[in-house]
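User: Okay, second chain of the day. Same drill as before: sequence in, structure tokens out.
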Amino acid sequence: MSRPRIFVCVVTYNQQQYIETCLRSILDQQVQADLQVLVGDDASTDGTSSIVQTLVCEYGARLQHLRREPNLGAFANLRDLLLRANADYVARVDGDDYWLPGKLARQLAYLQAHPDCSAVYTNALTVNEAGAPIGLFNDVGDAKLTLAALLRRGNVLNNSSMLYRAANSTGWVEGDQIDYQIHLWQARHGWLGHIGEPMVAYRVNTLGSLVLNANERVRELYWQAIQSVPCELVSDIDYALGIADFLRRVCFRAARTRDLALLHHWVPIVYEASPYGPFRTTIIVLNNVTRMAAKLANARLAVMAGYDKLPVLYHH
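Assistant: Same drill. Structure tokens below.
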């Protein structure tokens, strides 16, 4: 039998302090597959491009450097890379993140053992800019997630950990979209696997972070992701719980930033989209807020008491 082909898409822009660690962590993976890495270098103006070129000389044809001129922007850069992926399996990594040893082999074995699994993810260590661990990305554990489950509880999946079957297509549409929309697309084609062990390092709040620099745009795209799910694929309660989780996130953000304008903007939009009336929708939202507030409080107490050494960034 021929060896499976894995195509890894790496998007980067002005990440000279991170990109070498990222690319070596991919190219040094020990896996029984033909591995191809394509870097979408979005017209970097620092030393990123020269670092990638040096690594091309070292690793040869396994690493391809696609330098954009002019700058495409993060979404168009990634979309183009995914459309170029000619392989059996596809992964993508942000240029400031990196993989841990054994990650790719374990995921490949997982997909080969579960033909009805569309994509597989792993947990991640959250690290600071220097790469020191500061927590865990999520508390999902080993799990199988359906489309309905992913919609109900919202996005807690680490994008730089995803490996999916290329036969399912990219799920990428024209224009902007965030990772959550891709995850929901993959869940249309089969359940999503999640390995609870952290096998990726995710840098928190780096300078190029979209969440840090364009939080409202991310919120709009998150809502777009929810709206992208065809209503015939989920029940009314699944959809209601999904938009309730979205509004819960808006409430928490408004409380942290003391920005009541967020609620004035989003509450009418969510209520209009709900399959239920305002009263029942309010109850669902309040239950979601209470559940997550209790979970966050218990997690904080556990860290303070010394039971948990690594705080969780996203709770399921």
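The radius of gyration is 20 Å.

User: Thanks, on to the next one.
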